[in-house]
Amino acid sequence: MQHSHWDIFCAVVDNYGDIGVTWRLARQLASEHGIEVNLWVDDLRSFGHILPALDPKLPCQMVEGIRVLQWNTPLDQPYVAGEVLIEAFACELPDEVKQAVRDAAMPPCWLNLEYLSAEDWVEGCHGLPSFQPGGINKYFYMPGFSAATGGLICETGLFETRAAWQADSANKMALFQKLGLGGIQAEDKVISVFSYETEALPALCELWSEGQQRVHALIPKGRSFNSLKALLPCPVEALTPGQRIELGMLTLHVLPMTDQQGYDRLLWSCDFNIVRGEDSFLRAQWAARPFIWHIYQQEEDYHLVKLEAFMQLYCDNLASEIAECWRNLNLSFNQQQATAVQQHWQYMDSHAVPLLAHARQWPIDALKTTDLATRLVQFVKNSLR
Ligand SMILES: Cc1cn([C@H]2C[C@H](O)[C@@H](COP(=O)(O)OP(=O)(O)O[C@H]3O[C@@H](C)[C@H](O)[C@@H](O)[C@H]3O)O2)c(=O)[nH]c1=O
To answer: What class is the 158-367 domain?
Structure first.
């Protein structure tokens, strides 16, 4: 008899995105689809940054209904083939697992969960099998924005919860206070910043510090601050959560890192979000607020192709003037063009109202009829038939 559990293997690369995506998926599969999930992770310490409830020293633990296992090489905890085996982002599965799959009387449905992209070719590759030694198929599961792709991770009821949160400004003020971010008034502009290093960031800070309105930039300790060293009173390593750095009309706040639900609420609470990678990029869209996407850099500037594909989609039904302005802002930020990013930010400020209206409509248009987890469960059912 086949075991009904699912295994997800995730290798943490150099950031939080791979584990961020797989953790969200694992949680949703368990809570909304009643699936028993084993999540194998090779770096629990990094995982602990976005899941403070985790004990990185434990080889096996239950967190929010998911069994989280330390993935060591060689594998030192037993793997038993279940109904589904997911290798996240083409991580190389342990030999012991591949052997167990070959030996299983009923092998699991084996999937490679790929990175999200808005490019056209994704539709053609989603669901394609690749024949593996032992006569088993491995399927490419491609997240994406169209109905013919694997979809986008989005929990049931998320938009309603977010709308209720945003309907009462007391929620954001209470959150800022809870996070130890002092001195923020309800009418101030609040911007979250979770980017990689870029020269665009000090340029924007300069603009904000000289503006008419009070601006608060909420920045977790890490890569964004590496680009702001010249503005800091101490080395980046010495910054402490809650610390404030006053620069004219701008206050830089050192943001404590929270779990993913906390980060979502932060995105809902800000007027503008600067996000990166894959997961925060999607969550900024679900926050229904305007954003800049600092895309993860790839060889030969391939990331700019991915950025272009997304921008085209996002701007599809946006008035051309506003679309151009938002595209230029994103491009100049990603290309570290200090003067251009300042100019485009100012243009964008003058289109704030329609841009916000677009950001509010976008999640509904982008999600289509079903989310990734629901499509994935259906995909597995179809391929096991
Ligand atoms: C700031 C913050 C983030 N987070 C979470 C949100 C996301 O799940 C995660 C960050 O992931 P991302 O936004 O994807 O950005 P990232 O840069 O950390 O991850 C990247 O890693 C590379 C290896 C991948 O190739 C990229 O595509 C990308 O996923 O951290 C929290 O939970 N709490 C926080 O306070």
So the answer is: alpha beta
